[in-house]
């Protein structure tokens, strides 16, 4: 924006130098009427020059306003995208925090077989969306676990496989099954190195290490996040967690 304002000043300076008002000698010979006519022409020329300059100034000011509006619009869109990412990241960690952990004996018979049957007839995208909807829309976290397992088994090479493993790990983590959650997060870290869920998975692995009293392992994982994803939201979480680890 500063560059645009500087450009306005330079253009105005150039306009003033490049298009000076024509000057005529008012004095000299001729009748009084001739001298008055010449004076009127000089005044009109100067007025026209000022009008032209003002028009150029108005056009440049409008351009600055347009650029400012475009910048504000882009900033708003970026903020909306970041907010949506944070919502998706926080949704599963916060929404399920108050849910009681169901026993394996109850969960397995009631949801595993139906989930596999339901997803078998769906497309890859629909199967993934169905599993996500169980979490975000229906809040059926117990059913979401076998749904994600079924999707990962049926579509191991899917473009959604990294996300599915992360969702599965998070659901298992919230239920207290850290051993199985660790396997899901490790799958993301090891097999999907370009995934946007990799830094979050590293953070979760560090948290699991903390729960297992493996402070050195947790520190190493948090530091890995800081090295590899320095400007990410995961890095900020890692920094906070790292500072909270007691020697």
UniProtKB/TrEMBL annotation:
- What's the main place this protein lives? periplasm
Q: Which organism is it from?
A: Shewanella avicenniae
Name assigned to this protein: Cell division coordinator CpoB
The residues covered by the YbgF trimerisation domain are 32-104
Cross-referenced Pfam families: TolA_bind_tri (PF16331), TPR_16 (PF13432), TPR_6 (PF13174)
Q: Does the keyword RNA-binding apply?
A: no
Which cellular compartments is it found in? Answer: Periplasm
Function text: Mediates coordination of peptidoglycan synthesis and outer membrane constriction during cell division.
Name the source's superkingdom: Bacteria
Query: Record's NCBIfam families?
Result: tol_pal_ybgF
Q: What is the lineage of its organism?
A: Bacteria, Pseudomonadati, Pseudomonadota, Gammaproteobacteria, Alteromonadales
Q: Supply the gene name.
A: ybgF
Signal peptide start-end: 1-18
Family recorded in the similarity comment: Belongs to the CpoB family.
Keyword DNA-binding listed? The answer is: no
What are the alphabetically sorted keywords of the record?
Cell cycle, Cell division, Periplasm, Signal
């Amino acid at each position: 924006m500063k560059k645009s304002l500087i450009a306005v000043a330079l253009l105005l300076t150039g306009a003033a130098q490049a298009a000076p008002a024509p000057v005529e000698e008012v004095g000299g010979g001729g009748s009084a009427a001739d001298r008055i006519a010449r004076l009127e022409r000089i005044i009109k020329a100067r007025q026209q020059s000022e009008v032209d300059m003002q028009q150029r100034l108005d056009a440049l000011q409008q351009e600055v306003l347009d650029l400012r509006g475009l910048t504000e619009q882009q900033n708003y869109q970026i903020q909306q995208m970041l907010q949506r990412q944070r919502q998706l990241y926080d949704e599963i960690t916060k929404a399920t925090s108050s849910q009681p952990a169901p026993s394996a004996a109850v969960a397995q018979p009631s949801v595993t077989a139906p989930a596999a049957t339901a997803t078998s007839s769906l497309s890859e995208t629909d199967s993934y969306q169905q599993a996500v909807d169980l979490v975000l829309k229906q809040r059926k976290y117990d059913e979401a676990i076998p749904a994600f397992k079924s999707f990962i088994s049926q579509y191991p090479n899917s473009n959604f496989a990294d996300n599915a493993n992360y969702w599965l790990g998070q659901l298992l983590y919230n239920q207290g099954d850290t051993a199985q959650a660790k396997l899901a997060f490790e799958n993301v870290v090891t097999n999907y190195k370009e995934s946007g869920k990799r830094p979050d998975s590293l953070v979760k692995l560090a948290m699991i290490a903390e729960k297992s009293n493996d402070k050195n392992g947790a520190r190493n994982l948090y530091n890995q996040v800081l090295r590899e994803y320095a400007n990410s939201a995961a890095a900020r979480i890692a920094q906070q967690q790292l500072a909270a680890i007691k020697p």
